[in-house]
Amino acid sequence: MGRRGRGDQSQLVPGLAQTEDYAREVIRATMRPGSDVERKVQVRLARQDILRNPEPPSIRMVIAEAALRQQIGGAALMAEQVRHLIELAKLQCLTLQVLPFGSGAHPALTLASFSILRVEHRGLVTVYLQESSSHSFLTNAENVDHYSSIHRELRTAATEPGDRTVQLLERIAADHRSEA
Q: Hey, CA dihedral for 163, 168, 174, 177, is it positive or negative?
């Protein structure tokens, strides 16, 4: 497995981990009028096929608790989205962590969503920044080191992968179900 990705989200569940309904709500809310929402939803879902490849990339994902508590599409939709994350946390290729509210201030508070992409057998490393109206790739070593450092700090502040993360996700899903 020469491909690895790391991603951090402060406001949203990352696209690779979104359910169809959650993706539709996010795309509908953030796209310009006249955009083909359904086409964009299908493209997002097609990207998720990478998780089911015979040799999927290794992915580390840190999601802020705020993203999991934000009512996107209502409580029932959010309960479904969080249950989906619980299932994804069982995948061998995915290390999922949640940055809980209690972790306090962190170095990614003012940053856009970012991913660190590595293709080790090619020696390629880039930081992918996703903002509301633009996307960019940063390839110089200083930027990669900076975002890698932030990612390490977030992982340290986040829940331990595995049972602790799943326990927090189960509590969040139960909270959404009780609100539905």
A: negative
